[in-house]
């Protein structure tokens, strides 16, 4: 996974978020969504982007990004990392929808 360009981009986006460079991180995360069809990276990028948007008060955007996670049909949802990210997306969606 570490040699995957989407994985490297995701790590970079996380570091940028940690260092307060949210605009650049958001651009990278959206790039991952546009450029990869790998379900793992789609799920992980959507969760990170959704959390970021929610934290900025951009709830409608976060909802739209996260609502796609269940539709991805991730085949390896039994993988611990993927299952964890899918659960996180579900929890965020529930909060955003006021459930």
Secondary-structure-derived class: mainly alpha
What are the segments in which pLDDT stays under 50 over at least 5 consecutive residues? none
Span between N and C termini?
A: 35 Å
Shape: globular
Number of domains: 1
Mean pLDDT: 88
In the CATH hierarchy, the third-tier topology is known as Serine Threonine Protein Phosphatase 5, Tetratricopeptide repeat
Tally the helices: 5
Helix content: over 70%
DSSP, total strands: 0
CATH architecture: Alpha Horseshoe
Beta strand %: under 5%
What string, H for helix and E for strand, traces the elements in order? Answer: HHHHH
CATH C-level category:
Mainly Alpha
CATH homology superfamily: Tetratricopeptide repeat domain
**Major β-sheet, in short?**
none
The radius of gyration over CA amounts to 13 Å
What does this protein look like?
This protein has five helices and no strands. It has 99 residues and is mostly helical. The protein has one domain: Alpha Horseshoe (Serine Threonine Protein Phosphatase 5, Tetratricopeptide repeat), CATH 1.25.40. α3 (39-55) runs parallel beside α5 (80-96) and α4 (59-67) crosses α5 (80-96). The model has no long low-confidence stretch (mean pLDDT 88).
């Amino acid at each position: 996974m570490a040699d995957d360009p989407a994985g490297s981009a995701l790590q970079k986006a996380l570091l940028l978020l940690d260092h307060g460079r949210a605009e650049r991180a958001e651009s990278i995360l959206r790039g991952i969504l546009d450029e990869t069809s790998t379900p793992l990276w789609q799920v992980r990028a959507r969760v990170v982007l959704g959390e970021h948007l929610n934290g900025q008060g951009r709830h409608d955007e976060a909802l739209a990004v996260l609502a796609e996670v269940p539709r991805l049909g991730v085949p390896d949802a039994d993988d611990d990392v993927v299952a964890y990210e899918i659960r996180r997306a579900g929890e965020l969606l529930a909060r955003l929808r006021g459930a």
